[in-house]
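Q: I have two molecules that I believe assemble together. Could you output structure tokens for the complex as a whole instead of separate predictions?
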Amino acid sequence: MANLIKGNTGDWEVVIGLEVHAQVSSKAKLFSGAATAFGAGPNEQVSLVDAAMPGMLPVINKECVRQAVRTGLAMGCAINLKSVFARKNYFYADLPQGYQISQYELPVVGEGEITIDLEDGESKQVGIERLHLEQDAGKSIHDQDPTKSYIDLNRSGVALMEIVSKPDMRSADEAAAYVTKLRSILRYIGACDGNMAEGSMRADVNISVRRPGEPLGTRAELKNINSIRFIRQAVDYEVKRQIMLIEDGGEVVQETRLFDSIKGETRSMRSKEDAHDYRYFPDPDLLPLVIESAFVEEMKGTLPELPDTKKDRFISDFGLSAYDAGVLVSERETASYYEAVAAKADPKLAANWVISELFGRLNKAGKDITDSPVSPENLGNLLSLISDNTISGKIAKEVFNEMFETGKDAKDIVEEKGLKQITDTGAIEAIVDGIIANSPGQVEQYRSGKTGLIGWFVGQVMKETQGKANPGVVNQLLKSKLEG
Amino acid sequence: MSLDKKTVARIAHLARIKVPEEDLEPLAGELNNILGFIEQLNEVDTDGVDPLASVVEMNMRQREDAVTDGGYPDRVLANGPETAMGFYTVPKVVE
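A: Yes, here they are, computed for all two components at once.
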């Protein structure tokens, strides 16, 4: 069996389930008309509902329901036509209501399944348990004053989708691949911007270990991890901690732990221990959420082509490898850029150029594909100049660099700089003859068996033609003349 | 269902309400009276009856996704016992 971890006393299997909190891309909050935009001044985006003033009543935001249903459909989940909001009670300084409005027994979205793509090119199904809508809490800031915490309620009441997986993951890689895929789906359908640095997506990771084939071990929950890299680190650390603990005769305690990204370790959050008695009950301020099947059908119609379907299409229509197709479909913007290039040029060549040349330049310049100085049409034109032998691949890289810097057309650069490939055999032959005549030493060595010298001869021809000679023709001519 | 002193102390702690030790016993008695009153409902056969969400026959109203509220930090903070620089301030709570 794959993915087993060797301990001192035998093999261990890791079991991971994730709860991902994804902020719904809505203008207003889940139950109030206050704004959700990132970066406002303290308490500027707070309504009296969010501050839990007495007598305020929540009214649900239609867009949040829409996005929850669309996300459910994109993950192949069952949609519950009737769902109920419940109060999750706990006491904390940044939770003015004293409870979070969430969904408990009847969430808006039920079971489904997504495919995750692993690094070895394999894929795996991961079950989705549910998706429910809930309010975010406010934010506490602890470093402004030695004895006080500062509370900002701008996030209080912002709509979150909590997406709960089944405990189907068996390694840090699988957990990372799951979050990557989820983020890709959410961004494709526009339900969440997936910006983990700004807190739009965070994960709680449930981890336990067991001997293969045995029942589930006791789990620890790692709270609020906000990057895919940290998820990997946290899982690796926590797995080692649990295995060492058990092998030393100890027991894993069911608890909430915090991942410290600076120290790279997890530690117990004792303060949350008695907070686990949430005393859920249906929120009397809110009627059940009832949606029509016609609405669900309508939402199905609003979904774009999803990453998996697009990947399959890129493989079958364009002949790409699973790996390349996976890279190209991970972001919707990248996929449409690629498709626009492939419409004008050889699709495989287009994939290579987008993945290595374009990504490389964009990375160096710190730019997104959406503000690439080279338009997809223009890149397509450049690639067709390679395919029709107007320029060589090597020259094309030079032209591409200039396109990236100036935004000029490929054709114009080739014309201006006179970079057109010399395919006229007669012209190349004259140059080849000249070089052979002037290099008797090298010719003799070649003829006595040092055939590796062919590279040197090609280099000489290229030097004389400033790289513009068609490499195929040069090779062919050199071989026949040197050997003949 | 009957509450003992310990459970009452726990509920009070969860709600962050300070209840003096000598009040726990009498409070348990009062709460048990209320529970006893409600328990009479158990005599009614409710098999196959959906829980009543509201006495009004209507579905939940939904609002449009538009920013129509907020932008008044002064009003939000007006009732705060202590504020600073646009924040509420509270005794330090750190993990």
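A: One point stands out. The helical segments of chain B are 5-14, 21-39, 73-77.
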